[in-house]
Amino acid sequence: RADGETQVDFPLFVNLFLSVCGYFITVRLIPRVGEVFLQKTNLWGVDMNKKNGRKIPEALGVVSGFVFLFIMFLFIPIPFTKYISDNSNFPHHELVELLAALLSICWVVILGFVDDVCDLKWRHKLLLTTVVSLPLLMVYYVNCNATLIIIPKPLRPWLGLSVELSLFYYMYMAMLAVFCTNAINILAGINGLEVGQSLVIAVSIIIFNWIELSGNLWKAHQFSLYLMIPYVTTSVALFQYNWYPSRVFVGDTFCYFSGMTFAVVGIIGHFSKTLLLFFIPQIINFLYSIPQLFHFVACPRHRLPKFNPIREKLDPSVTTFHKSELNIIGRLIMGLFRGMKIVRWNEDNDGVVTCNNLTLINFILIMIGPTEEHKLTKILLYIQAACSLLAFFIRYPLASIFYDV
Ligand code: UD1
Ligand code: MG
Description:
By secondary structure, the chain is mostly helical. Helices cover 62% and strands 8% of the residues. The chain contains 15 helices and nine strands. Helix 2 (61-75) packs antiparallel against helix 3 (92-118) and helix 8 (193-212) runs parallel beside helix 10. The longest helix has 36 residues, at 5-40. The radius of gyration is 22 Å and the shape is globular. Uridine-diphosphate-N-acetylglucosamine binds at residues 45-49, 58, 185-186, 188-191, 246, 249, 252, 302-304.
């Protein structure tokens, strides 16, 4: 490293210190804010997988999000302290990256909170999550504009060594931001799952950044660590309250905040393709959900598993519709899913169909049978962790087969 070790490690050290403080602040704030939400606002929901039907404060992700932003705002000058006495070489591009990252995250925390309060419509959510990627794309364009991708060895006879994707690469990054912000929110509905999966992804990113700190692009990975470390500590605090049995719900605020933070570090840290590898369960859940998300198949307001109060276990939840309601695309996709035996499909003589809601959570329940809620969350988190291991395998040993690394 050209800068010398001590210069580099000082900001990371301060970041770690602030993050630990952030953990304790979040732990103290969550019960207090939760109480306020219960007493003075409508921000609460009923835990549908419990017998008691107690009111649980909702959208507490806003606390971890705000503490995260607070820490990051305090941190803004820290990486630049060595330029205070002489700012002739000030790295303006690095400051711009940090500011654009925080601008985007700030925006989604607000958006998520508005969604929790007002229940935004899907088309509004999509529009609002698409515009937020613009500052990031601008920074990417101004600072590096690298849109060349290297073709894997087996495809080189046809496509050549590399392809310049230009505008398409920007479209890919914008779509990545929209995907990340929504993907966690639709793999949700059982205690601890939203924060749990986000923590597994975040820790995977940190390990990846840590490995890459010794590489050529170490600056980008250091930037990512600055955001991921406070993200993890503030989310761990939230996890303690959201784990089974949940004392608070995290809300869409947290799901958007997490997804956007991951997208930001992936885009500005130049590892947007590796990032997607850490989202394998979310990608599977999204693909499986497509018929319901695009309304080829009836989609109820909630798709979370159904609580069986007698057995005290969760069963897959179902959607019911008449077979004639399916259009041609719906019939084709569902025919494919039934052929692959990945749905539980019952049809009576009148053509009324009962089919499981198309989520990864329900699919696991079909595979393993009725399960207690906390066990189901653990299984899904183990799957997420296993997919991260697979991601590292694809990124390192396997990549050397396809690329000269
Ligand atoms: C998304 C899902 C929806 C799922 C919901 C659960 C899609 C298209 N939407 O909707 O299917 O049911 O998340 O989060 O896939 N809740 C629990 N236990 C939990 C977490 C949440 O019972 O562990 C319930 C509570 O009543 C809570 C509500 O879910 O109030 C929150 O749902 P919300 O985040 O508003 O749903 P969406 O994100 O719109
Ligand atoms: Mg939600």
